[in-house]
Amino acid sequence: MRLEEYMQHLQSNSPTIEFSTKHGKMIVCRKQTNGIGKLLEAAKELLQAMIEAKDVPTIEAIHRLLDLAIVLNQLKLQDECLVVGNCAMQLAQALGLRAAELQKVAAQTISRIAGLDVYKSRMCPLFIQAISICEAFAIEDGSDSAKVTLLEVLQYAGAYAFNYPALCVQWLGRAIDLIVNLPSAMVTDELRGVVHLSYGASLADLKEYSKALAVQEHAVTIYRSLESKYDGPDHKQNLAGALLNYGSTLFEVDRHEDALSEEREAVSLFRGLAVHGQDEHKKGLGNALLNHGYTLFRMRRHEAALSEGQEAVSLFRGLAVHGQDEHQQKLAVALLNHGRTLFEMGRHEDALSEEQEAVSLFRGLAVLGQDVHKKLLGEALLRYANTLFEVGRHEDALSEGREAVSLFHRLADHGQDEHKKGLGDALLNHGGALFEMGRHEDALSEAQEAVSLFHILAVHGQDEHKRVLGEALLRHGYTLFRMGRHKDALSEEQKAVSLFRGLVAHGQDEHKKGLGKALLNHGCTLFEMGCHEDALSEQREAVSLFRDLAVHGQDEHKHKRRLGKALLNHACTLFQMGRHEDALSEEREAISLFRGLANGQDEDKERLACALQHYGRMLSKMGHVEDALSVEQEAVSLFRTPAVHGQGE
Length: 649
Hints:
Order of helices and strands: HEEHHHHHHHHHHHHHHHHHHHHHHHHHHH
Radius of gyration: 29 Å
Shape: elongated
Distance between the termini: 60 Å
Helix content: over 70%
Structural class: mainly alpha
Number of strands: 2
């Protein structure tokens, strides 16, 4: 009945098709109907074959059910797909009980079913079951062909369960071991390539960058060899994908120019493919431009990033005309990235326009009821709210922020960690806006709820959850500090310092930055409470951390900003303790840093002006009136700014 309903809609004259799904409405543009029509015909043929079949061998029946489940999944007929998929798995499991050699069919069937959208919530347990069955079969059978089957199941699981990188690393690591020990003739280069590609991506997701680099470099070598041997689009596309992954990891280990080089080659490959006009290759080019543009953005090459972003937006806008959800989602992501670049360049109104369109697109997608689209809508709302606040539209910003909080509250009820983290981020963002508008108690309430959420997440022991808990504690402490509740602020900051100190042992820049910020805030609170010696100790350590990051870290510009801020706070404490010459030395270093940064954005000029004003006041208090006047005149010529000593970024 559902297939007939679809066919009737396809034969109508309407420019779009609306049909009911489990989660509401799905709209399909006319340009998509040919593809869906073919899928419907395939589904009908498969279903008819199942109905009319008599005395069909069980293995053939399983294969037919599996094919039908895959087509139903593509048609988004979730209920029907679930029924057919369950039937295929039950038959396969029953068959596997008959004889050991038939366990191979059970493992292959369960793994293929696990990769279907409707089984997303059960994906990992199903893959674990399939791998367990296949491992038992490979051990009992003992043949190399059985090990190849296990290798294929492990590869499939690793490719589909990418949101669970720890599991993927375990599975794909086992796959790599099998590749090494199997006769080379039994493993195709294509299979080697995809295993190394997925394994490298999962290692990078776990921030194991040195291991990831070696694996990804090998994947590039495999695909480069295939591309040189066979003149086909698939090998070029695979090589481009491997280059993009490799480039992303190179950036994370501070090899920025090498990252750009790999990404440029990927863009060039996709450009060559996109000439043929296929949507798949245009999408690949759009993704490559997004990656390359983001790398340029992080390197503060904003004009170049803007150019890449504009081309990506244009490409995805052309693809989105077809109405496919995937292309509309990519267009929205491209608009957000483009908006971020415009914002950093000071073009806030242009950024608002891009972000507003992105929010509108995500709103349309979220109507379909999928959590991934709701999550993306929530993240877009937060970005949009921040820009609105920056341009002075505070009430509008609060409204968007409230919607984001509400959205993540509903998602977090499903219990997934990523949605709880999203809710925590939304609460902190919204709380920050409330605080700046003078609604301190409301802001405190949001910060407390965020801390509580992140405490729950951190129980699992993952470093990323501990890091976000540390950030939430700092935000909570900052709110308390600004409200004059210094002892309460001190308590939260001490927790954050302790947490980041434990993380820093792992050596990542992100954790060092977190510890530096925590020490800076903690030192500031100690200073305000009159504990100058303790404050000096915290500030000195913060200066040391940021000095190291400014030299060796991946985001030199931002680390220099933080180092300048730490030096100013340190100087303020030194001056208060009567160590005037030491204080002036710190001030001069901070001014030199900010002067080097002030060629760019207004906010850097503002920081320089702020440092000059502070230096001038110190000189004046020491009786160097003429020098103080000269310094303060330079500050006035830049910007008028508030006092320096304080917490925050």
